[in-house]
Input
Amino acid sequence: AYCVNEADLKHQVRALCQQQAWHKIVIREKELQKLFVGMELSDDLASCDASITGCECLVARTGTIVMSAAQESGRTTSVYAPVHICIARASQLVPDLKDAIQYIKTNRGQAWPSQVTFASGPSRTADIEKTLVTGVHGPKEVYCFLVEA
Output
């Protein structure tokens, strides 16, 4: 979803959570917690409805969310919740995968993260009798909000 500014972001995320009846939301990044003051936040990934994280960057060509262990949300927040909501800035949008690697190198310098994850949608597998199953190794639903300003 495209958001013209942070006020639009807050409105759209709150509307989505209300529409889907998500009440227990995990947000571990302090800057994002400030944006969503007043929402019912949870620390329990096992029983939450959704998680909200930032990202390192977004890859336009593949629709990929690039996340890393160096983020304040850590390794698990985007994976264990049944729904992952990613918040990104327009300045984090890069054209291709090689640009994503360069973006991380530029922003993290010598402190390369211990893990970098490339997520291009909900988890899915067809290993089980060639039937497509979603949410096996990650969230069943993924939403991305791109904030212009």
About this structure: The first strand starts at residue 2 and ends at 3. Helices lie at 6-20, 30-35, 77-80, 97-108. Residues 6-20 form the longest helix (15 residues).
